[in-house]
Design brief:
The chain has 422 residues and is an alpha/beta fold. 29% of the residues lie in helices and 18% in strands. The protein has helices at 6-17, 129-134, 165-182, 197-208, 236-251, 263-274, 279-285, 300-309, 333-346, 364-368, 370-381; strands spanning 44-48, 63-72, 78-87, 93-94, 97-104, 138-142, 186-195, 217-223, 320-325, 352-357, 390-394. Strands 1, 2, 3, 4, 5, 6, 7, 8, 9, 10 and 11 form an eleven-stranded mixed beta sheet that branches. Helix 1 (6-17) runs antiparallel to helix 7 and helix 3 (165-182) crosses helix 4 (197-208).
């Protein structure tokens, strides 16, 4: 990492300080089991039933398990994936076992070391997984293929197919199957909740269910969801292209990243992987410079990938709740509205609800709408029916929307003194 600017080095140092252990490359848990080569998707490959949580920053009264299981890449090729299960103390019960929520995390990175299961706070902490567990749900959370388990049975690197939502949808569905195999005491019924990249994955699960229905699937919630880079507005669209180019190359062998990246872009993407950068490191690396060609969306492979992996304008099965901040700078409201309206126009009887949050940005959408999505999850497990139509609304704030705290300005760190905790 010699020669990198100070802001990049600072970001990388901070990210490494948040690993629960050393690099996943040095942790035997993340080594691909030999039997993975013959296992069918959804098969449990490895189980760490009770993780020593000393190095983690999880709420008191919760417990942690880790799993490795078989999933599928975008092209259907089997791939081993890691994940975690966060356990509540007093779990909600269904007639056949504990209530389960599949959590799909927002972007943590594209390198194996950015796996949430090896992050002290499981990456999105109180924004999502902690709150779900504290409300009594067993939280099954995939890392996504390429994050965590780094190599397949043949020793070949597993590339994370970033923003290939159907690929992450596979990871979500198969994580539930593996968790049910590992712990028969959990229910066969489940709800999917995701944010950002995970919001796109949750939406994609709803689309996947049309042709590949999952037993027990009750519906999905997509918060601040990614929809399609083909429609993405603003400065973050090109950054998506930079971050996902190697994933596109892994899905389409005929594609060369040099077709869309500038020489400087090629260099910085290489540094991102060499330094095991997560979101903070990548944002520091990509903060300036001419990294991607202006016409990158016109590349034939990029277009094909975009059409294959996009959300919106496709049939869904089961109820889908989409929640989005009207001031989201990352995944633009315009792209989400276009995807939602296209779905409603083509499939008017789809049980689809879109809720807007005035003055709310990307990550704060999770907290601002938590009451709404927690109630929605409870209703699905309670058997409450959902209208077969498209609905769009705004969530009203108790105080004027402009007076609310805009962005998260805190992070978690270990308590080392008795007075650090209440």
């Amino acid at each position: 990492m010699e020669g990198l600017p100070a802001p990049v080095l600072d970001a990388l140092k901070f990210e490494r300080s948040n690993w629960a252990a050393n690099s996943v490359l040095d942790d035997p848990f993340y080594e691909c089991p030999h039997e993975a080569g013959q296992a069918t998707p959804g098969t449990l490959l490895k189980l760490q039933r009770d993780v020593n949580t000393t190095a983690y920053l999880i709420p008191g009264g919760t417990a942690l398990s880790r799993i490795v299981y078989q999933s599928e890449k975008l092209d259907g090729t089997p791939v081993p994936v890691s994940g975690f299960i966060l356990w509540p103390y007093a779990a909600r019960s269904q007639p056949d076992g504990y209530a389960v929520v599949a959590w799909a995390h927002g972007t943590s990175g594209a390198d194996p070391d950015t796996a949430p299961s090896n992050h002290k706070n499981l990456w999105q902490h109180f924004l999502g997984p902690y709150q779900l567990a504290l409300q009594g749900y067993v939280v099954v959370a995939t890392d996504y293929a390429g994050l965590g388990v780094a190599k397949d049975t043949s020793g070949e690197p597993i590339m994370h197919e970033y923003l290939a939502s159907p690929s992450q949808a596979n990871d979500i569905v198969h994580s539930i199957k593996a968790a049910q195999e590992a712990f028969p005491e959990i229910s066969k019924q489940f709800v999917v909740v995701g944010h950002s990249q995970g919001g796109g994955a949750a939406w994609s699960v709803a689309q996947r269910e049309v042709t590949r229905p999952s037993p027990g699937y009750l519906g999905a919630i997509a918060i601040s969801p990614y929809t399609s880079f083909l429609n993405e507005e603003g400065k973050f669209g090109p950054l998506m292209g930079v971050a996902m180019c190697r994933g596109i190359a892994s899905s389409f062998p005929g594609f060369d990243t040099k077709e869309i990246l500038t020489p400087e872009g090629e260099k910085r993407v290489a540094v991102m992987f060499q330094s095991h950068a997560g979101v903070a490191g990548a944002m520091a690396l990509f903060a300036s410079g001419d990294l991607i060609r202006a016409d990158w969306r016109e590349n034939a492979h990029v277009k094909k990938h975009g059409l294959l992996t996009s959300n919106g304008g496709k049939e869904i099965r089961g109820p889908l709740l989409v929640i989005h901040g009207e001031s989201d700078p990352m995944n633009s409201p315009g792209a989400v509205k276009k995807a939602a309206e296209m779905t409603a126009r083509l499939f008017p009887s789809a049980p689809f609800e879109l809720v807007w949050l005035p003055e709310v940005t990307h990550a704060p959408a999770l907290g601002a709408s938590q009451r709404l999505w927690m109630d929605w999850i409870s209703d699905r497990f309670g058997g409450v029916e959902v209208e077969s139509c498209y609905k769009e609304s705004q969530l009203a704030s108790a105080r004027p929307a402009t007076v609310y705290h805009k962005e998260q300005n805190w992070y978690l760190e270990p308590a080392s003194k008795f007075y650090h905790t209440p």
